[in-house]
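Proteins fold reproducibly. Consider a sample protein:
=====
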Amino acid sequence: MIPEPFYTPDNCAAAYELRWSLALFPSLPLPPSDQWLNELKAATERDHIRILEQHLLPNGTVQFLLSTQPTVAPPAIVKSIKGRLQTVLRPLAAVGFRRNFRLTSVGEASVKVVENYVAQQLEHHPLASHRSQQLLQRFSLTFNDVELTEPLNSSHGQYVLALHIVLVHGSRWRTAEPAFLEKTRDAILTAAAKKQHRISRLSLLPDHVHFTLKIRYEVSPAEVALSYMNNIAFEHGMLNLWMPSYYAGTIGPYDMNTIRRNL
């Protein structure tokens, strides 16, 4: 019998910074955006997707900078923007879209900056005991063979999807017990293998954990974070380990300043 999950969207709050760059390829030039953009923004808000910026390139490509809530999966982003844009444009022009698209996760900082931040967590949170500090070095892992910005291709388009996840022990409970930390580490790595995620950095601290990973395109950031919370709790004997919250942030090949300069 599969145990009921401790952590669900109903009982966990999310802190999040989820931003995406979406490129669509119209079959015909689009009308000027002042004729349709405000209506599109209002429509996509109903899907928990916010259009932050929009730009038409000389080759006809339309680019969007978007933010989403954690429960929105990447395919739903594309479906919402493309479908609602076609509806909004219908009275103006008979514009279709090619099947291909590119959706890229982006963050305030680039992948490399965030990976370095995660790898240096032990330096940011030094312990009083030198022995404990040395012990925790074993739980700061780097997987150099994992490239988070390598694209994933679906039958309809291309995704570049990477997240930074942070989970915190309830009441900031602390432990440097090796057996406990090993179980947490192994639960994360086992879950990642089962879900076909690729972890590039993992840092376990006495009261919280950071990791960066490449995800599959079918699942939302909320599903990703909650699944790890529940898998780790299960491996610890259904221990109610975590605060009823998590942090999920998108990261990508470019930081926000670069994205803004190109939009």
